[in-house]
Automatic annotation (TrEMBL):
Enzyme Commission numbers on file: 3.1.3.1
Enzyme class: hydrolase
Domain Phospholipase D N-terminal: 42-123
Protein name per its UniProtKB record: Alkaline phosphatase D
Amino acid sequence: MKLSRRQLLAATTAAGASLAVPGVAAAAPNLVRRDRAALPSGIASADVTPSSAVVWSRTDRPGRMIVQLTGHGRFDRAISLRGPKTDGNDDFTARLPLRGLRPGQRYDYRIGFEDAYGRIGETLDGSFSTPGRNRPVSFVFTGDTAGQGYGINPELGGMVAYRAMHDTRPDFFLHSGDNIYADGPMQAELKVADGTVWKNVVTEEVSKVAETLAEYRGRYKYNLLDGNVKSLYADVPLVAQWDDHETLNNWYPGEILDDSRYVERRVDVLAARAKKAFLEYLPMEHVAGRDRIYRKVSYGPLLDVFCLDMRTYRGANPVPSTAGPVAMLGAEQAAWLVREVAASRATWKVIASDMPLGLLVPDGDLIEAVANGLPGAPGGRELEIAWVLSQFKKRKVRNAIWLTADVHYAAAHHYDPARAAFTDFDPFWEIVAGPINAGAFGPNQLDPTFGPEAVFVKAADFPSQSPASGNQFFGHTRIDPRTGVFSVSLRNLFGKVLWSKDINPA
C-alpha cells in the first residue's frame, strides 16, 4: 500500500484517533466471545472521495474502535488505527474519518472494539475503492426502506432488492431519503390488498411510532438485522441523505402534531432526536464541524454528488394557490448549491434531491413537495427551485442531473423550457427510483411549470403493493471515462433493466 503511516496518523489524529500499539492487529477476524465486544449491526464505509473516506460500526458495550487498513488485502501488513471511544451516549456507534488516501486504490478494512484491558472482540472486514482518473464510475440509487409496514420478510429472503443492487458491484450507493419509517409500526403479519399475507421479523422498537431517541435508534438497528443490507454496506460505500420518515410523515420545522399516537407533539423535539439517531447510524463526512446533512461528495474528475436536505430548512407546507415564496432548501442551502455546482470541475453534477421537482406530492389539502399542481408561473416552493435553475443557466452549468425518490415508483422525466411556463433554464433530466423495500404506489400528477415530460413510468398495480410483487425500483449509473457518457437505467426487485438511457455530456 503506497500510503505512509505519517499520512494516516496526521489525518486520523485530527479526528481523535492515533496509531494502535503493536499487537493490536493480531485479533483474528470473526472471533466472537461473550465477554468481548460484538458487532451486531455490521460495518460500513461512506462518503468516499479520491483521498478520504469514513468507516463506521456499532458494538454492544463501551469500547474503543480499532481499524486496520490495508491496500493489498493482507491484514498482516495493515496499518492499525485507534478510533474514538463509544458508550451509551451514542448507542455504542463510532465512526472514523480516513484522510491521505491514494486515488484509484482499493482498500480493505477490519473493524473491532477494544475493551479497557486491551482485548478486541468480534471483527468484521469490509472494502471500498477510491475514485481515480481514467476509471469508470458506477453507482446505484434509490430510497424508501421498510415503509408501509413492510419490513424484513424471512420467507422472501429479507430485503432482497439490496442484494440486487449489490450484484451490480457499484462503486457507491446513494440512498435518497426515508432510510427508515419511524412513523410506521410493524406487525408480524400484514394483509395485502391482493389477498396475500406479508410476514415480518419484528422487534419491540418497531411496534409503535418512534418518539424517544431509543425508538428512533431501534429503527436503524432493525434494518441492520437484514443480511442483505449488512452485506451491501460492508462492500459498497454509502452516501446518505434524509427526508420525512426518518422523523415522521410530511413534517416541517415548528409543526405541532394533531395525532393521538404521539405523546410528544412538538415536531422540533422529535426531529432533534431523529437527527441524532440518523447521524449515529448513517456515517458521513461532517462539514466544518457541523452536523449538516447537505454536502458535496466529490467522486473524482467524472462526478460530484450534491446531497440536498429538503426537510430541515423548509417553511410550513402551503396551500397550492400560495403565490409568494415558501422555503424548501432555505436561502443558505440554495446559495450553497448554486455556488458549489457552478464551481464544480467534474464532468457530471448529480443533484441528489430527496423529493422530486415536477411531481405533485400532496399533504392533504396542502403541498408537501415542490410542485403545486397549477399551470403558469412558479409559486410557493417552485420559486426557490426556479431561482436555482435560472442561476445554473446564467453560470453556464453543464451536465446537471437530478436523482430522487420519495414517490414509491420509477420514472424518467425530461424538463425542457420549450414545454414550460417558466423558461429561464436549460433542459435537464430527473430520474426517480424507489421504493427499495416498502409499499409501491403511483404514478403522481406532473406539474407543467418546468415543462417535464414523463419518458418512462413504472408504478404499482394498486396502492401499497408489497415488495413481493417485484415492483421495487433502483437506478444504476455508469460513467464512461473515455466518452463521458452517463448511462443510466431503472431496475426492479430482481435487477431486471426496465428502462435505460445514454446521456452524452455537453
